[in-house]
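Q: What structure does this chain adopt?
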Amino acid sequence: MNNREKLNKMDRAIRMLEDLKNSQVAMVEKASQLQMDAMEFNFSDMEKNMGDLFSRYNESLDLVNAEIERFEIKRNQFEQKHGLDKMEDE
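A:
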C-alpha cells in the first residue's frame, strides 16, 4: 500500500470515528431524555439506570473525542511527512 492509499485509509478511519461520535452523542441525548422522563413518571429505578447509562455514554464520548483528536494529529503528521499535503500538480 502506498502512502496516498494509507492516507485515504486514515481519512476513512476519521470519518468512521466521526460517525461513532455522532452515535455516542445521540445515545447521551436519549439517555438524558429518558432520565428526565423517568423523573416525571416517578420511576426511580429507571431514573437511576438512565443516569448510569448517561454517565457511561458520556465517558465513551470523551474517549471517542480524544481518539479523534489524537488520530487527526497523527494523520496530519503522516500527510506532511510524506508530502501529501502538497498539490499533486506541483
